[in-house]
Amino acid sequence: MSQEPVSDAAQPEDAGFDDYDIFSAELRNCPHQRWARMQQECPVAHSDRFGGSWLVTRFDDIKAMTRDPELYSSRVSDVGGPMPEPGKSGLFLPPITSDPPDHAGHRGVLLPFLVPARVAELEPFVREKAAALARALADQGGGDAATGFAQQLAISVLTRLLDVPAATAPQFIEWTVRLLRLGPLDQAARATVVSEMIGYFDQLLQERAAAAQVGGDAGDLLTYLTRPREDGQPLSRKQQIGSALVIMIAGADTTWSALSASLLHLGTHPEDRKRLREEPKLMSTAIEELLRAYAPVMLARVSTQDADLHGRHIPAGERMLFPLAAANRDAGVFEAPDQVRLDRRRNAHLTFGSGAHRCLGSPLARLEMRVALEEWLAVMPEFEVIDPDSIEWTGGTVRGPETVPFRVLP
Asked: Which CATH superfamily is domain 30-408 in?
């Protein structure tokens, strides 16, 4: 049993909870105390920063609101920036940005490639890659578990899933960082990276469609997207590109951030490392607890009608923000929520969302987490994070440690 350390510098201010800055050092590096206070004193707050938004923190509210597409639309996924006009979305990422009745069909397009049985076929590749990355770091006595392991593993899996050359990985990482970490703060930079990604996948889809017509491999995901549906009609090019972008974007920073945070935890809690080594059957339960405690995603929705929530009036057309890690640390739902208990049994966390929009890639994320930690601990059963209090975390759509410097212990 362990607790995430909180430095004195991370203590919340005594000021009100409105006018928050989701990219501030506090809400990036250690937001948990502020969220806990908000859950008790101000469960919904408002800020005009970054295009304006309402921040909701209680588990029950977030669960109910993410399951109500009539009142809270998914058409906008960005946590900051200008709000698109009613009826329009930002970057089209089906099914993430889809509402009923389109959502089910958009989700069904990708589902065959992300069901547990199909995901299980990737395990040998994930295990081989994780072991190789871990051995390389162990051979040099340490390194960065975030950029040298978690990031590389997550992107390698995505390039495999999309059947693109491994040499594409650095470009995927750069695009992900520019879109999710810099984009909300710099709309010009966001527009540039979106244009680059769309151009890349548009060209790739054209090539796959042409290759399939002359007898090329039709089993990869991108070629599948170009194929006619059951009604004989192909997906629109917009949906083809959007579906490809979902695979790249949704499975990149989210997975490597959750894995990086888990390695940061294990590198600062030797008792949990020891327990995982001695009780390997505990791994699946432990992963659910690490996912609960370090949920990386902040969801965005758009209110479709005027509503009142905990004494606050929310007009239609407003951006709603749901930090899933806040919901996962709600003391009204989880016992000792700030303690990481690797054997926690009652653990209905919201890390993968809830309802119809529950994360399609959750089987793949769980597989990557399990295999990565198994292989890491097999190669480096003893390691420690260097100067954990100085580590900076990302903010906005995805929260995770920027770096996890570590050294191997004898």
From this structure: Cytochrome P450 (1.10.630.10)
